[in-house]
TrEMBL record:
InterPro entries cross-referenced by the UniProt entry: Nict_dMeBzImd_PRibTrfase, Nict_dMeBzImd_PRibTrfase_bact, Nict_dMeBzImd_PRibTrfase_N, Nict_dMeBzImd_PRibTrfase_sf
A GO molecular function held by the record: nicotinate-nucleotide-dimethylbenzimidazole phosphoribosyltransferase activity
Listed SUPFAM superfamilies: Nicotinate mononucleotide:5,6-dimethylbenzimidazole phosphoribosyltransferase (CobT)
Keyword Transferase applies: yes
Keyword Protein biosynthesis: no
Pfam family, one: DBI_PRT
Higher taxonomy: Bacteria, Pseudomonadati, Spirochaetota, Spirochaetia, Spirochaetales
Protein's UniProt name: Nicotinate-nucleotide--dimethylbenzimidazole phosphoribosyltransferase
Length: 342
């Protein structure tokens, strides 16, 4: 069956379940998209995993964040002790958590963190290219390998989360270099003052001017990217054709996804936008990729917190498709005419 036939058959299956046509709204849409992703009319639920990928950013030296870069590794320690927002939400949404070091500025305890270090933080892209071509290839390859391993281990829904002080500056530079309008992208990350936001805007615009023109997504990531965000791009590209959905999170993760999308527009077919972040440029990137956020809770934490909440709801869509009784099975009378889905 091709995609369109699966879509039609999945919708027909849902219409045969004991409910008015379309009455489970977006849960039904999630089930249909999962059917297409898995190539099965009735999608199957399975293991769910959140990959929280961390790295440091040289651009932190330019004074664009309220926080020192040490918070990246301190939060990674918090993740490993199950004390962070993602640990709580992942636990209650049914996701296993994996922590990845893609380029933290110091060494971390690798007994609880997956080592994928491309360097000890990127360079300050206000002055010089963020990373070498080799470092970028390492990130893309590491991301692809992480995704392939997760699929081999039977994960059906994967969520991406980020941890990287100053990465909202990196993410904004990536989005703008990728063609999106600066005025709709640049915003606060963590809570900075309006003077600091003006400074952040200047740093981003000067960096774009320094490194322009940008030939493609790889050129963007090499010049103004981040190790964790490039690893996420590789992760997403690595999931193509694997029957697995990927939940994306807020502004930084979505900048990584946007790079993957620039490299291959078809990634949108297996991406879900877990939530809409408070950071204004997030919605602009989602729209460019043709994705609609599942929930809007005014969140702006990162770590994959919005991704696992959205993933929980996608999984409910799968449960509906796979566990509800049909009109035939339950002996419930169907509508007397052709029912409209409104
Ligand atoms: O996910 C989001 O939309 C989001 C919005 C603002 C901040 N963050 C998180 O905060 C950190 C970056 O903020 P900043 O101000 O240092 O650029 C990084 O660890 C992100 O995970 C995340
Ligand atoms: C405390 C803290 C936790 C975070 N989690 C993701 N980004 C973060 C940034 C800060 C500052």
């Amino acid at each position: 069956m091709n995609n369109e036939q699966i879509r039609t058959a999945a919708r027909k299956h849902l219409d045969g379940l004991t409910k008015p046509v379309g009455s489970l709204g977006k849960l039904e849409d999630f089930a249909v998209k999962m059917a297409e992703i898995q190539g099965k009319v009735v999608p199957e639920s399975g293991k769910m995993g959140a990959f929280v990928i961390a790295a440091d950013h040289g651009i932190n030296e330019a004074g664009v964040s309220m926080y020192p870069k040490e918070v990246t590794k301190q939060m990674v320690a918090n993740f490993t002790q199950n004390g962070a927002g993602i640990n709580v939400l992942a636990r209650h949404c049914g996701f296993d958590v994996f922590i990845v070091d893609a380029g933290i500025a110091s060494d971390v305890d690798l007994s609880q963190v997956i080592g994928c270090k491309a360097g000890y933080g990127t360079r300050n892209f206000h002055e010089i290219e963020a990373m070498t071509a080799d470092q970028l290839e390492i990130c893309l390859a590491n991301g692809k390998q992480l995704a392939e391993n997760a699929v081999t281990e039977g994960y059906k829904i994967l969520a991406l989360g980020d941890m990287g002080i100053s990465n909202t500056t990196t993410a904004a530079a990536m989005a703008i270099a990728g063609g999106l309008p600066a005025e709709s992208i640049i915003d606060k990350g963590t809570g900075i003052s309006s003077e600091m936001l003006d400074h952040k805007r200047r740093v981003i615009l000067e960096s774009i001017e320094r490194h322009a023109p940008f030939s493609d997504a790889k050129d963007i990531m090499r010049k103004v990217g981040g190790f964790e965000l490039a690893t996420m791009a590789g992760f997403i590209l690595g999931l193509k054709g694997k029957g697995c959905a990927c939940m994306i999170d807020g502004f930084p993760v979505t900048a990584g996804a946007y790079m993957a999308w620039l490299m291959d527009n078809e990634v949108s077919a297996y991406l879900f936008a877990g939530h809409k972040s408070k950071v204004k440029g997030h919605a602009v990137m989602l729209q460019a990729m043709g994705l609609e956020a599942i929930v809007e809770l005014d969140m702006r934490l990162g770590e994959g917190t919005g991704a696992v909440i959205g993933g929980f709801l996608v999984n409910l869509g799968i449960k509906i498709a796979s566990e509800m009784a049909s009109f035939n099975d339950a002996g419930v009378s169907q509508s007397t005419g052709k029912e409209e889905n409104y």
